[in-house]
Design a protein that fits this description.
Layout lengths: L4 E7 L6 H11 L6 E10 L12 E7 L11 H16 L1 H8 L7 E4 L5 H5 L7 E6 L13 H5 L6 E4 L2 H10 L3 H6 E3 L6 H8 L4 H7 L6 E5 L8 H13 L5 E5 L5 H10 L6 E5 L5 H6 L2 E4 L8 H8 L3 E5 L4 H4 L7 E3 L3 H13 L5 H8 L7 H14 L1
Parallel strand pairs: 1-2, 1-4, 2-3, 4-5, 5-6, 6-7, 8-9, 8-11, 9-10, 11-12, 12-13
């Protein structure tokens, strides 16, 4: 039997984000007889930890929940975590010696773009290196990448990108045929069977707590931080209520901006009509029973949640961010609106004023087959890992 390929995979944590969910789905579908995998987390935390197969070895730099506030008692821990991670990033030999025990890896894999330098600075010079780009790097919340910054990604043997838009951006910066060949567009592994099955689970008690009434319900699902535009969604909600369009909003997800969005909801005076559910490991029954799904994002790479909404054949309103045109077939499968508060307002108003106009999308969705399946996606990534 051939020797197992030794792989190091790095990601920040296993909190409830799209990149994290996609990675976990991928790992759950890998054959354990082929690979020996160490998964290194910056923070041993997150809802998906329990889903990692037991044959995968989990290592970490820090342990505990993510600290999203500046409470006095949390500041020492926060400072320690930042300095410790900075030290290991500056002196990777320490990380590889004391945490990774001088293990020699055949392949090192950054599961998110933020760990680019950590993998490229690995002291294992002969390992193959892969990175998975999930976002439009021109528009990330913390750091908008310049051409020079994006060029650094060509230090990897393979660059996995998840949308045509991101692929085009990288290809425009490739200076040789070899660099161009390093860019591979792949479909995120998504378990559509799991989505459909979980959507059937009954949630009557939870629905009572949400307080759903006989008015149109708009749902939005995602990690609660500025990228997702939940502030824009709530402001549009308020405006439409003032204009005499009764409806409700349900936001499913958690994240560091949760309290800010919650306060905004109260400040706008919409606590009775907008609900923030927090994180649930099964958002699909809520998604299924909502009248409309809204993607209010300021930027994306290839929004996983949009594929989930397509799988459940929802009426979709989505801002025109990376991946949306491709996923919604340029507006055949859902209403693509301008990436602005005004755009979201126009989309939701259309849904409330003329709900019948969404019937054409429903006809298209009924006959639509997703352009991939879980097995093909996993096999595609495995082939890259095996051939690199």
């Amino acid at each position: 039997m051939p020797e197992k390929k030794k792989i190091l995979i790095r990601i920040g944590s296993l909190r409830h984000g799209g990149a994290e969910k996609v990675l976990v789905t991928f790992l759950k579908n890998l054959p354990k007889e082929k690979y020996e995998i160490d998964l290194l987390l910056n923070l041993y935390s997150g809802k998906y930890l329990s889903e990692i197969p037991d044959w995968i070895n989990i290592l970490y730099l820090n342990k505990g929940e993510m600290i999203t506030t500046n409470r006095l008692q949390d500041i020492p821990t926060k400072i320690f975590r930042v300095l410790y991670q900075k030290l290991l990033k500056s002196f990777p030999q320490l990380l590889y010696r004391f945490i990774l025990k001088n293990k020699k890896y055949d392949l090192e894999f950054a599961a998110i773009h933020g760990l680019r330098d950590d993998i490229l600075n690995s002291p294992i010079k002969d390992s193959k290196k892969i990175i998975w780009i999930h976002n439009d790097l021109r528009k990330t919340h913390f750091h908008n990448y310049t051409d020079a910054e994006i060029r650094k990604f060509f230090g990897f043997d393979k660059i996995l990108v998840i949308s045509e838009h991101i692929q085009q951006d990288f290809e425009n910066l490739a200076q040789t045929e070899d660099e161009k060949n390093r860019i591979v567009r792949i479909y995120n592994p998504l378990d559509t069977e799991e989505i459909l099955n979980k959507a059937e689970i009954k949630i009557e008690a939870e629905l009572k707590s949400v307080g759903i009434q006989n008015v149109p319900l708009f749902i939005s699902v995602g990690t609660v931080f500025p990228q997702k535009g939940f502030d824009r969604l709530l402001k549009v909600h308020k405006k439409l209520l003032e204009e005499g369009f009764p409806h409700k909003i349900l936001i499913v997800g958690d994240g560091y901006d949760f309290e800010n969005i919650k306060h905004l909801k109260s400040d706008l005076g919409v606590d009775d009509t907008a609900t923030m559910l927090g994180f649930t490991d099964n958002p699909y029954p809520y998604l299924k029973m909502a009248d409309f799904f809204v993607l209010s994002s300021r930027y994306e790479g290839f929004p996983t949640v949009l594929f989930e909404a397509i799988t459940l054949k929802k009426n979709i309103i989505a801002t025109d961010v990376s991946g949306v045109g491709e996923m919604l077939e340029n507006g055949k499968l859902g209403f693509i609106v301008e990436n602005s508060e005004e755009g979201i307002y126009n989309g939701m108003k259309q849904a409330l004023q003329h709900p019948d106009s969404f019937k054409t999308y429903q006809i298209e969705l009924e006959n639509y087959l997703l352009p991939f399946n879980l097995e093909n996606s996993v096999n595609g990534i495995m082939k890259i890992i095996d051939d690199v």
